[in-house]
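BUG: 3D viewer hangs when loading the predicted structure for this chain

Environment: internal workstation, default settings.
Expected: structure renders.
Actual: progress bar stalls at 90%.

Input used:
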Amino acid sequence: MNKNREGDTMVKSNRQMMQGALVLSLAAFIAKILSAVYRVPFQNMVGNTGFYVYQQVYPIYGIGMTFALSGFPVFVSALIAQYRSDYELSPLLKRLFWILSGLGIGVFLLLYTQSELIASWMGDTLLSPVIQSVSWMFLMMPFLVIARGYFQGTNRMVPTAVSQVMEQVVRVSVILLAASFYGSLTNDLYAVGTWAMSSAVVAAVMATFVLLYYKKSDSFENWNGSRVIESHKIQWGVLLKRLVIEGGTLCLLSSILVLFQLIDSFTLFKGLVEQGISPEVAKDLKGIFDRGQPLVQLGMVVGVGFSSSYLPLLSRSYTKRYLEEFEQLKQSLLKMTLVFSVVATVGLLVVLPRVNHMLFGDIQGNDVLSVYVISIVLASMMMAYHGILQSTGKYSITLVALFVGLLVKGFSNLWFIPLFQTLGASVATILGLFVMLGMIWILSGESQSSSKDQKSTMIKLGIVTIGMAIVVGILNSFFERYFPSGDSRTKDSLIALLLVSVGIIVFIIGAIRIKLFTIREWLMIPKGKSLLRFTRKWKKRGEKDEIR
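Structure tokens produced before the viewer hung:
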């Protein structure tokens, strides 16, 4: 009887965990879309130079976000899950809060007091108030981390998910409101950038209120055990060490692309000016280069979405030692990520001039952006491998690869920017990501596990992708004769949407005909079941027509 009850409890707990993980994945997906999409109207409102001002400081915000959302909360939730059944949580949470408060205040003081120095390292001292405005969000970090970690540690992901989406909605709203002031209240793009970056602290405050709202419905004491945690387990030094090593590792791994962007903030504009380019032109060029980031984010949405949804399944299979199931899930994740990232990249490359004009109002920087969007494939695959390694607890592989990738990116920027300007920075990004992905592939042992299925997938993917590129390319060439790209934004927008739609249809038909995915994989894809049903009906009609 007791065994049955225990079994039922475990099943219920696993179900709750899976549902929670899916809720959190969905929230992350929505937040990523919002994070990518808002930059388009923002750039349209403030121009390339205004976009440059914002993007120069954005990586600092991005790192803060990983601290408060996907780095430290995961660490705190793991600690809570470890102790909640047997011990009182209050002493642990209080000490974690004060350690995080010290860290948050330290980062705030560093950014606020040394903003001029940091801005000078970026090559533009006018960025100082923008850096100061984003520094305030680090004071909110302890509240967000403890609250999110608490809820996640007790298998309740809805509060974190709602606060995450709310945070992005508020931030995007404040940013676009700030951009709307340009030309009406002020012509100072640095002032607009400062107001836009203040969205970080406003959004953090709103997210905190959301979490406090959920906190009203329960109490920390509800999860307190009968014993106080032994003092040696929650010593300040022990907690600080674990926070730095375990939490810091999670933070670094969650901010891979942001760290690459941070290197660009410190090297690209400064490097252009050192080559004799005027500061105003350099700002414009950096703003055009930064267009690549929302394009890459949009291209990665599907691939990263799969990684997020697969992670709880992978973790469960590995923990339960269902190794065959784990291997199937792993291969399926890698396959899906590769397919959708390659298709997104190739499709975007074919129609890039029109997409550039549709989103940003001109076709400047097509060559730079064409190289930069290749990072969709590399970054998506890297995140997929990171998810697999995370589910098995092998953080060190990704961490080593990250440090090497950052070194390659940094030195390549110093070498390539003087030679090729912004194109050099794009090449450096691709090179850094390629080295990082290659290291993960080798160190994880994947380089030795190639199979016939993988080779078959590569061949089929090549056929489908080339077919899609040819069809869309021919159609685009036809339109170029009568409606050249860059001529009219409205025409380019309509043609771009038509070409994307055609590309998706050709890909789906090709994928079904060539059996790129298994039935199980189709069912994992949103609306995949409906597509299979439609295909079966279409085949049956074709067979009937042949008989007639």
